[in-house]
Task: structure prediction
Amino acid sequence: MKRVGILGLASAVLLSGCNFFGGEEDDEANTPDVSEADDSLTVVPSIPSEENYYASVLQDGAYVHGQTRGYGLDLGYSRKDLDWLELGLEDIAKERFDPNDYFFQEGTHLSRETVKSWLLRYDEEENPNGLNPSLGDGDDPMEQEKNSPWVLANVLEQNYMNVNDEGDYSTGGVALGLSLYSEYEFSHDGKSDSVPIKAAVQEEKGMEFAETIVNRMREGVDSEEDLSDVPIVVALFSQQPKDSVNAGHFFKVGTFEPGENPHWENINQEHVQFPSPAANEDHRDDADRFTQFRTDVQAFFSNNIGVVGRARYEDNQMVKLNVDVNIQYKGKAEVVALTQYIAGQVEEYYENIPVDVNISALSGSLESIVSYHPDREPFIHIIN
Result:
């Protein structure tokens, strides 16, 4: 078994700037050469990580929030869907916008008002820019909603910035995540109902929405910056029902190069919770492996230990596993021992898969973290 690194933290806050997971302490060679001639814009230094995150642009020393920040939460969408919509879109953007050449900034070209108008139903007089369909036929509002469900749930914008020799920043690329309902839920006068959206409808309408939105952005909606010559990547995301235990997934990505027809590719992605009936049915071998891992962890203490896993699959292969462990303990030494044990079990059961484990008390406070990647030794953080 490989050695396990241990780090005790004075705080539960783990900053991305801390070089916990390998890489050289002096990373100047890997940080893009950025001129700071523009006093208002700077870049957070790039820190090595397996995820290869983008360095972020700062304005007057502060993080730049997008105008639609938090809009999905305002609409009542699940946190897990919104988190993966954001982080997954960054992963997709890396295929076109190399993190060594571009810097990340939340979307600034679409206003909250514009996105809201696009998400509302089309109305020739009151909302001519609406992308969701007008109400359907029917004898009452519930029937009308059911006969013409919303498809577009959210629009997330991310900007990828270039810097020239004079230190001036401009948008070098845009990534858009279009979140599409897999199930449209609606209510009227205390009555609730829902209608499923077929995958074929999500794909067809999503591609139509993408072309319309890209054209509007190139024509200058909301933006003072000319985007006519800026490449735009659009990823289609299937949003799960609110009561789903799994996050949504991306299923198609289109690249819109200036002056060219869009190029579309399929994405085979899935999120699965362990244990669950879906895992047993669709990923039996992985479900059995997680059950054995869970049994071993639970056998370590006489106290009850809750163990739940959330896996991401790409092309039908598990590529990442997150595990939440809830414990009841009497002393910190128990936490240290359990964390060390879990680190060894993770390496034994998931030798070729990146795994992150959060170990929390029943009160919800984070007690320790295990981080494992096949390219390095497992690492643990004990939170003091």
